[in-house]
Each structure stands twice: as structure tokens, then as C-alpha cells.
From TrEMBL:
Protein name: ABC-type quaternary amine transporter
EC numbers on record: 7.6.2.9
Record domain ABC transporter: where: 4-225
Entry keyword Iron: no
Top-rank taxon, per record: Bacteria
Organism phylogeny: Bacteria, Bacillati, Actinomycetota, Actinomycetes, Propionibacteriales
Span within the parent record: 15 to 239 of 382
GO molecular-function term, one example from the UniProt record: ATP hydrolysis activity
Length: 225
């Protein structure tokens, strides 16, 4: 697990200041929710950490190494988005293994890694299915397996379960918690849902208009008016 430090991040889109001098400290192995209303800069912040969004200024380090110059694939980061974005023509195992080998058959040790990760997300028997044969929850478990396959030190999730029904969302939160505990990955979970943030995380950061305006333990955030 890695320590993630962001300092004085600024991201502007024209007149809009999406991220406004934001500081972030994620302890190694911590599980943090980034909570705030739609449009407050959660996705943009995650994009900066993942390397998908270049900030106008500021710095991001992972275990003391500045990462702002490195492309997403060079960062020790796994990313799960709201929409799973699976390859429709590839089966589940190939979708999960895509980052290891984009073309050609997987090597046997790679197949073993994929099988191990499918087991961890409880998709043991679904490796040969195509994405259109999966439920929404299964698709998000494929995304999780893919994000975790290369054992990232940081896991970033952007409203990963917001398209699932409430009961399934609770199940999926339990699964993410277990994967976090088993793999010891520093986790940042973006949500606009306070109940979800409080349920899933050990620490909640409240974002408003691109700034961290509060936070604390789930109990503190839950009982605050
Ligand atoms: P959240 O994830 O909290 O909903 P976002 O990070 O998506 O917030 O957006 C923060 C602000 O930046 C919003 O005002 C949004 O409209 C704006 N924004 C986000 N991405 C872009 C973009 N690519 N171009 C222009 N404005 C953007
Ligand atoms: P989310 O709800 O996940 O934050 P949105 O629906 O706000 O996503 O935005 C979808 C896409 O459009 C994202 O890639 C975001 O960066 C971009 N976007 C958001 N707001 C704007 C904007 N005002 N102008 C241009 N692109 C935007």
C-alpha cells in the first residue's frame, strides 16, 4: 500500500475552477471516501491522481515519487469507473487480462493470475462469458478484477456502484472492503451518497466547489447536521 499526497492542485476548465487549491493525504492502506455533490470536482480530482487529467498546477506523489509527468499505465494505480467499459468482443478472462497482454493468448502464469483475481471477486466460473451475458453487478466485478490484476498500490473508484440497485450496492461495498483488506491497497472511493461514504470508508473527506471543506471519521460525518 502506498502513501498518496496531493498538494495545491488546481484544475480549470475555462472559467470553471473544478479543483481549487486542493490538498489530499491518503495514509498507506487507508480507505477514504471523497464525498460531495455533483459538479464539486470529485471526478476531476480522481482523474488527476490516475493520470487522465493534467492539473494546471500542484503536485501528486505516490510513496514520495512525483507522478504528474507519468502516464496512467506507469502509475501504480487501478481505476474503476461508473460505467464498466468492457470490451464486448472479449470474454471476461480476456477483459481482466487485457492489461497484461493486449493481443495473443495469455501465458499460463497470466491465466493463473486472472483466475486468482476472478476468484477474489467471486466470478470463478464466468471467465468464458461475454460482457453482454453479465448483470450490472457482475460487470462491475470484472472492472474491479481488471483494476486489481497488476496489484496496484492505489485503488481509485469513481461512483462505481451508482448504477446498481441498493441491495446489490451494499453487497458490492462489502466486497470492495474485503478486497481492500486482503490486498492492502490504499483506496479512494468517490461518491455523492453520504450513507454510502459512511458505510464503506474509514475516513470521509467532504468536497465542495473544488475544495476539501470538512471530513473525519464516518461517525463524525454522519452525526454532523
Ligand atoms: P463531480 O465528479 O464532483 O461531479 P467533476 O469533477 O465531474 O465533478 O466536475 C467539476 C466541475 O468541472 C463541474 O463544474 C464540471 O461541469 C466541470 N468539468 C468537468 N470536466 C470538464 C471538462 N472536460 N470540460 C469542462 N468542464 C468540465
Ligand atoms: P460525472 O457525473 O461522472 O462527473 P458528468 O456526466 O458530469 O460525469 O460528465 C461526463 C463527461 O463530461 C466527463 O468526461 C466530464 O469530464 C465531462 N464534462 C463534465 N462537465 C463538462 C462541461 N461543463 N463541459 C465539457 N465537458 C464536461
Amino acid at each position: 500500500a502506498a502513501r498518496v499526497v496531493a498538494r495545491d492542485l488546481v484544475v480549470r476548465f475555462g472559467e470553471t475552477v473544478a479543483v481549487d487549491h486542493l490538498d489530499l493525504d491518503l495514509e498507506p492502506g487507508s480507505f477514504t471516501a471523497l464525498l460531495g455533490p455533483s459538479g464539486c470536482g470529485k471526478s476531476t480530482t480522481l482523474g488527476v491522481l490516475a493520470g487522465l487529467q493534467r492539473p494546471d498546477s500542484g503536485s501528486v506523489s505516490i510513496d514520495g515519487v512525483e507522478v504528474l509527468g507519468s502516464p496512467p499505465e506507469r502509475r501504480p494505480v487501478g481505476l474503476v469507473l461508473q460505467k464498466p467499459l468492457l470490451f464486448p468482443h472479449l470474454d471476461v478472462a480476456r477483459n481482466v487480462g487485457f492489461g497484461l497482454r493486449m493481443a495473443g493468448a495469455l501465458r499460463s502464469h497470466e491465466r493463473a493470475e486472472v483466475a486468482d483475481m476472478l476468484r477474489r471477486v467471486r466470478l470463478d466460473d464466468l471467465g468464458t462469458r461475454r460482457p453482454h451475458e453479465l448483470s450490472g453487478g457482475q460487470e462491475q466485478r470484472v472492472s474491479l478484477a481488471r483494476a486489481l490484476l497488476r496489484r496496484p498500490r492505489v485503488l481509485l473508484l469513481d461512483e462505481p456502484f451508482s448504477q446498481l440497485d441498493p441491495e446489490l450496492r451494499a453487497d458490492m461495498r462489502t466486497l470492495v472492503r474485503r478486497l481492500h483488506d486482503e490486498l492492502g491497497v490504499t483506496t479512494l472511493f468517490v461518491t455523492h451518497d453520504r450513507d454510502e461514504a459512511v458505510d464503506v470508508a474509514d475516513r470521509v473527506l467532504v468536497l465542495d466547489r473544488g475544495r476539501v471543506v470538512g471530513g473525519g471519521t464516518p461517525e463524525e460525518v454522519y452525526t454532523r447536521p
